[in-house]
């Protein structure tokens, strides 16, 4: 096979946007081909891709700066400095510096690891090899070293990592075919033509190359990487400020008490304590006491909280990575949590923004069923004549009779093959039509190995079906089409192609067979084809229409097929008219359309095809389940409106039983405003216009009391808006009404949208709705949307890794989103909320004992506990049980989490941890601290030992309170734990054992002999805990602390059970029976929409094919038909301009953004490429 190559110029690596005139923005670019010295004068960006955040030298300062932007870290740094002042510190400095350094180190290691993988990915792209023309010689050069103005040689199936301009091609007329799968998920080929002045240069090019690196339009469209924080993080920052204010208030209260006490009582002891030189007045004593209590009481917000939160998030991330039910074995792709900071946010998602191609669909079209002459093929029946479902185990038809079959093609109804073998005329004519009526380009890579390059996947599926049933499309020239029909080569003379467009919604070809007969073959939307049928087809038309309804009800994309025998004289006369119309300067398109319709009248119906636009497995079920969880799913796609609607019906997002589907397609601001207002009035009625989603209403109250949401659930609406209408709707004057209408609809589909518009829609919801957003996509055009949303999910599919690299979570199939949110997300949110409630309770109970003791110790900043207990309480004694609860707790198991999606609702309403919950758990902690202090204090006032001596020393009192505290918080975590594992038992009982072991060790003779100054209280624990009265005090304290909680929870569960309580009771009742997985039946589309392929198909390449400009010139002709030049119509040399003009709105969303954002026409630009590995080029 001849070598295929392209000469490309690299003129730019950036988005040239003429619509915005920002100061200093580049409006034009001067480039000389193959002249680096000249081009370097303009300081154009190099081609180095950089998505990493740090460098080796900037990591430490930048990372520390980011970490100390957290209020808590800065707070503990200030405390550390205060603890170094001996006049005010009653605690050692190591109680703060050890956990602070630990937190900073763990976070820095995590950030460094994440950035290392970014560097690794960047390096992989930057070091790819390219062929660059340097000083007249082709040299291998890394893509990162390519410069603006360089000339690059590209060969077949090579990736492009720059914005380039096509100069020349080995193909005729400077054509090339490109695949943008990594950019927009589309696998169909797009054609581009070289500049006229350079297209004939061939292999002797010594000209051009243009935009690099971070200036590429794709990189600019990707947006900046944002630091994402969860709503719990933001709430915790607020709560830390409140706690800090509460700490200041306690410090002021105790300092005032100290001033008063020193004024009235303490002054008499200054001389004995030698304080005269230190304290000049009681006010100064109160000032020093204030800072002392700030240090002592700082554990109301212990830094161990942040260490524990990071550990929990890391653990939850590993659970996602290890989940085998989210592992896609076909591609060996596990789920991956690419960030550890957003796991609990997965349990609070309210809006999902999804791409279509490659995310909901596989972008694979499969010939599924057909109707031929009133008989359907494609279903499988058992021995009793009952229809059976087709599964992977269903045996496939044997195509071994066909040596050129496509082994990837599967069909299960053997009766169609039998009809082919029996040479039934209409069945053969059906597949002959499919093999002839198309614009597919064949490529034979080796003998018998055919590859079809199709304008759309639908066309490829139809031609492949014909190939397997014995009608193999082998080759084409501008004048002929060669088929391999049932083992014999047959060449047809191609006389005309009547191509698809947005108005015709059909395609026809006129051919002459070897017998000299003229045939017209047509395929298109059934509503169009049926109007063109001969009256004799009426009965067959009704039968075929019923079959089409069945196909459409299953979500299949349908086309009607028809043919016509043409009279020679009539055709000659028609060709003369066609020649005249094609050269007309006025109303050319209308004249051609009328002529096409004239010859297409009186068709004979053959049947219909049904193609399955294969959704990813489980998509309808996943969408249904997420909808039951009150998650709104918006589809943002660059596809045409009809294609997007068809997928909406296939996914069951759109249904015929919906009350109304609103289509917003206005071209002006006033038109869009009128359509949106009409839609809002239809939903709410004129009297409900006062409603606005922008009202400052509490989320819980809004959902609970506003009947609009009840109406929306009962009356289901859908909103579909086009890209040009969306551009107006996103303006400041209309964005609020757009959001109102969209939020009242059950389904929202935005079609023909650019990557920037996707991000704007997400930003609109983020800005006006207090809701967590999630964006999911698979292509580079989804990157900006993924980065803008609170949570970004990348699908690691066929379209490259751009979305994955920019995402927070990634997996291989859309259906895993259900498990990510309803299981991992809900559990993470539940665990994190329980963890925080318990942690704040525990630390308030632990810390406020010092506050109560201050009133009885002269406000002297004396601590109740031993210093070592203060140091070890959060790090050793109580850290592991709460971590076990935060890692392993489950309110209900995964089966019930998926079976009852409404269990997800509390996370959306922030019910499990909010300001009210915080006040509740801190109030419980305050009450517990009060009981912990005053019950032992009251008991010790008159308590005596067994031998009659008093238990009045401070250390015995401290041991009693400390032991009561450890036991009380351990009982509390037992009450808070819903799901006990061996780890939970080990950590709870082990922590208690460790507490007593350390307590006795620190009061033992042995450690006193080693560190006499650090552990002077020998035997205190033994002498205290061997008294029955002490254990009775501990028991009484624990019971008083926990019994009110037990009673309140019992009454609440019994009288006002939540949905979770009910499901948990159901789970406990059926625990001995293994609950089965939720078995959602496959959701089938029940829609009357048909022929979505024909409605969605863009302007075809028929004119290009018949012009011969995409064909190589062969020395031998493949046909010897006389009259090859019979009135044939050739297009003008400006065919590409006319084609692009006719395509109009049918250009892809990425192409639309090419022309609007960059100001570069399709004639002079190759589509923008991807962030890392970009488009694959095909030459034919």
UniProtKB/TrEMBL annotation:
Catalytic activity, EC: 7.6.2.1
Keyword terms, alphabetized: ATP-binding, Magnesium, Membrane, Metal-binding, Nucleotide-binding, Translocase, Transmembrane, Transmembrane helix
GO cellular component: plasma membrane; trans-Golgi network
Cofactor names: Mg(2+)
List of residues binding ATP: 355-357, 459, 500, 523, 557, 637-639, 752, 758, 781-782
Keyword check for Metal-binding: yes
Family in the record: Belongs to the cation transport ATPase (P-type) (TC 3.A.3) family. Type IV subfamily.
Subcellular location: Membrane
Biological processes annotated in GO: Golgi organization; phospholipid translocation
Organism (species): Astyanax mexicanus (Blind cave fish)
The UniProt record lists the keyword Metal-binding: yes
Transmembrane stretches, start-end: 91-109, 239-261, 281-307, 835-856, 868-888, 918-937, 957-975, 987-1011, 1031-1051
Membrane topology recorded in Swiss-Prot or TrEMBL: Multi-pass membrane protein
Enzyme's top EC category: translocase
Domain P-type ATPase C-terminal: 804-1058
High-level lineage: Eukaryota, Metazoa, Chordata, Craniata, Vertebrata
GO molecular function: ATP binding; ATP hydrolysis activity; ATPase-coupled intramembrane lipid transporter activity; magnesium ion binding
Protein name: Phospholipid-transporting ATPase
Active-site residues annotated for this sequence: 355
Primary location recorded for the protein, binned into one broad class: membrane
